[in-house]
Amino acid sequence: MRQKNDTSEPPVRSNEDERAYLLKRAKDHQQLSERSQEFASKAIHEKLRQLYVDRAERIEIVVPD
């Protein structure tokens, strides 16, 4: 997470790298959800997992001819 006074630019990734990053984060939240004991924690991690998956699915990866 970026700090309040952080003026640096966020990392720039290729579409393929961004998609892989988002899917990794989705997997991380799935694992956290599975390990959570509290219903609220499970629900939060599942929601975050779904948001990462949805975002990854929206990235277009153009395959050159």
Largest beta-sheet details? none
Tell me the structural class: mainly alpha
Distance between the termini: 38 Å
Helix and strand pattern: HH
> Mean pLDDT score, rounded?
89
Got a strand count?
A: 0
Compute the number of helices: 2
Gross geometry: flat
Q: What is the secondary structure topology, with strand pairs?
A:
Elements: H1 15-35, H2 39-57
List keywords for this structure.
flat; 65 residues; mainly alpha; 2 helices
What report would you give on this structure?
- With 65 residues, the chain is an all-alpha fold.
- 62% of the residues lie in helices and 0% in strands.
- The protein has two helices and no strands.
- α1 runs antiparallel to α2.
- The termini are far apart.
- The mean pLDDT is 89.
Brief account:
The chain is 62% helix and 0% strand.
